[in-house]
Amino acid sequence: MTGTLYGVGVGPGDPELLTLKAVRILQSAPVVAYPATPQGSAQARDIAAEWLTGKREIPITMPCMLDRGPVNQGYDEAAMVIAEELSAGNDVAILCEGDPLFYGSFSYLLQRLGDRFPCVVIPGINSVSAAGAAAATPLITGEQRLTVIPATAGDEVLRRTLLDSDSVAILKPGRHRPRLLELLRETGRTQDVWYIEQASRPAERIVERFEDIPATPGPYFALFLVIRAAKTLNE
Length: 235
Fold this sequence. Notes:
Blueprint: E1 5-9, H1 20-28, E2 31-36, H2 43-48, E3 56-61, H3 68-87, E4 92-96, H4 106-113, E5 119-122, H5 127-135, E6 146-150, H6 155-164, E7 167-171, H7 177-186, E8 193-197, E9 205-207, E10 222-227, H8 230-234
Parallel strand pairs: 1-4, 1-5, 2-3, 2-4, 6-7
Antiparallel strand pairs: 7-10, 8-9, 8-10
């Protein structure tokens, strides 16, 4: 008998947003793994820390770089370590911020391990839902369309998305924030914007006026919500 691989979504940051099922799995699994920076920071672990006492931990150290070569090597090495635990009959819970399959790092481990071991995915609250809750505004209603896109998409793709979609969530703005502000001006969406950092975390910050969003690079854990007519409806 092999162990079961669990992909556990731990939500956007507030530990109280973990699901009951996520907590139950974390309490029962003897081994937990989670992404970590080379400096040892691990956001997913911090969120779930209350339920990790006595667990065997596997930090998955990921280099902070655009080159996929070292990143893929990190996933390959982590998959081998996790496979040893699963082959020994130990369940392994892999922690993932937000939802495991929504831009989640768990997706890459699932590709490497999912065809060899039993797998169960525990969904979590994603950053887009958390940001909508923070802004207390509907993301989409009726027949509207929501597009989720990373800030790293090219200018033309982002421009077309802003023109064609009722609601747009632009993830991971970081150093792209000045460029995104220009695109929002070009497409006439400046009145539809919320800029939200660290949704659900103690450092949560919500900027409702486009003019107040700094035209400088910003943090990684942030996003733009661009929602047509939502502010008018709220008023």
